[in-house]
């Protein structure tokens, strides 16, 4: 049951992050089209699902809250958990997506890679952190309810 819940959470967060970051990425590039958005979303979703399969987020988040001494403090623990998720997912997704899009631009029209990456990374880290912080708990509650499990313990997802 625990593995099923983790998988569902990974999928929901992956879809949500990919939708938002793909929209922001294609919109801020100045080349927003429904087709480019959809391609970006699918590429980003694939990356986030792979990360979700291999990175034990809950374990990392729980250990970080425990080491920080904030396990029983819901707001502080959620803030730290969101930061950890953001710092693991966002840089990987952003680097991959910027690189994919960088090579698609004709060489004569490419901006410097570091500028593309820097702008995207900054925007993505802020947006993803807020998104993770705001939707993480409601998603977990929804998944637990769907699976017939009660609420998570206080201070934890």
Question: Care to describe what's here?
Answer:
- The protein has 157 residues and is an all-alpha fold.
- It has one domain.
- The chain contains five helices and no strands.
- The longest helix is centred in the C-terminal third of the chain and has 34 residues.
- It is elongated, with a radius of gyration of 17 Å.
- The relative contact order is 0.17.
- Keywords: Membrane, Transmembrane, Transmembrane helix.
Report Rg: 17 Å
Q: Which consecutive residue ranges, at least 5 long each, have pLDDT under 50?
A: none
Average predicted confidence as pLDDT: 90
Overall number of strands: 0
The gross shape turns out to be elongated
Transmembrane segments: 40-60, 87-107, 113-136
Keywords: Membrane, Transmembrane, Transmembrane helix
Blueprint (SSEs and pairs):
Layout: H1 2-29, H2 34-54, H3 57-68, H4 74-104, H5 113-146
Helix pairs in contact: 1-2, 1-5, 2-4, 3-4, 4-5
């Amino acid at each position: 049951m625990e593995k099923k819940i983790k998988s569902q959470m990974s999928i929901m967060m992956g879809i949500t992050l990919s939708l938002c970051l793909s929209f922001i990425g294609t919109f801020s590039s100045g080349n927003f089209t429904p087709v480019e958005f959809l391609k970006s979303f699918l590429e980003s979703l694939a990356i986030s699902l792979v990360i979700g399969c291999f990175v034990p987020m809950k374990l990392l988040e729980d250990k970080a809250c425990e080491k920080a001494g904030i396990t029983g403090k819901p707001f502080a623990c959620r803030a730290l958990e969101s930061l950890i998720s953001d710092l693991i997912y966002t840089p990987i997704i952003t680097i991959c997506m910027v690189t994919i899009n960088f090579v698609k631009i004709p060489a004569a029209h490419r901006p410097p890679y570091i500028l593309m990456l820097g702008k995207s990374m900054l925007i993505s880290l802020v947006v993803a952190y807020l998104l993770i912080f705001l939707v993480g708990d409601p998603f977990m509650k929804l998944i637990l309810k769907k699976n017939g499990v009660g609420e998570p313990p206080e201070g934890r997802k």
